[in-house]
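seq/struct pair 1
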Amino acid sequence: MRPPRLGRTTLIAVDGPSGSGKTHYAARLAAELGATVVSTDDFATWEQPVSWWPRLVQDVLIPIKLGKTATYRRTEWADGKPFLGAERRIEVPEVLVIEGVSAGRGSISDTLSLLVWCELPDETTRLERAVARDGEQVRKHLLTWQAFERGWFAVDQTKARADVVNS
């Protein structure tokens, strides 16, 4: 792991396709390191799979880099539908883990201390895990999402830049 590159904070990204275990991996890592976790699900919607990124940068990464408290409104989900939810405040952590699809995008490579790629090889298994987690009502959305993320990862080359690959 590289030294802190987001101000005094060590930034770790846990990325990979949906249903690959990123959230569980990030939780274990955070418990081990005493880290704070931010999920890309706190920002994404079905209609905006990755275009919400400037909000995460503005509301979380920039304040933390400047040594200030980060504040943002979470996207929350009910029955597979997103809505603007509760406000979350994050004091400047020693270690910040961002987990979720596109968390390790190339645009933040220079601020990452570690990029972890999680991927179960079988797309069908990943789909069934995601449906089990989020409910049958999101299966159609998840099929569209899987097609989107294949394209996203092919362009971003996230896995190729990963420091750790967990399959």
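seq/struct pair 2
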Amino acid sequence: MTSYSFLALRVGVLAISLAAAATVRAEDGITVYNAQHASLTQAWADDFTKETGIKVTIRKGSDTELANQIVQEGASSPADVFVTENSPAMVLVEKAGLFETLPKDILDQVPAQFRPASGRWMGVAARSTVFAYDKRKLKEADLPKSMLDLADPKWKGRWAASPSGADFQAIVGALLVLKGEKVTADWLKAMKDNSSAYRGNSVAMKAVNAGEVEGAVIYHYYYFGDQAKTAENSNNVALHYFRGQDPGAFLSTSGAGVLESSKHKKEAETFVKWMSGKHGQAVLREGDSFEYAIGNGEASNPKLEPIAKLDAPKVEPSQLDSKKVTELMTAAGLL
């Protein structure tokens, strides 16, 4: 065999090896640590795989649980993508320096208000804070003008929330950013005196429906999801939107980011781009999650209050401080 033939053979073998390696990577797919609702992320994953052929393996957990797990795993984490319900968990991982900076063309798929200035992760959906109330007991004139009004003693024993959940803690995080520590601490202390604690937004809404309390601070989509099914837990409920850039009009960002330690970064970025792009946002619009689509030019489910009419306050997602929120809520006796 000539040296030329031997070299050609080696080049051919190398090309086959590289092709095989690429095939293995594609077959391995990506691992997603998912703290979003399981059905929504599964719908995203299924449609993404159909379109791209990239397999998605999902590991489920809560916002805080998975964020802390990623921090503990560090560079050894098997996760390629982290998806959350609320942004404080994303901030925890970002502060640990574990996210890859996303390319500009991916970040630019959503408005700046739904992504941190760092570009280390981005929003893929949003949910609005609302006051779900018993329409048999309260008229429009009776409703609180601001979420802060719920600290008034006249609301004692009349409203509820789910203080142990990541959803409510994100709302408190926004209150902290907008009004500062003293106002937040005072409001939480009044909440301890005035409110009833339930475990989960849907349970709090069910309590309103059953007449146990007159209202509850929750996210909007629990109501719409129940209405789309049997409505048995929301027949007596209506939603009050605080608007006016009130803390109670806070829009929480559901985030997605690529781990710096990912061995499948190209595929991982493709998934984040797909979720925040036309097809992924269509899953929000046409599916049964009832979360807001936030992609540029993308419409949400027509049953929802238009996002432009919510008049939500602008809160930099990376400013939500889960550690400080936990401290304040613990001091108030809510955790």
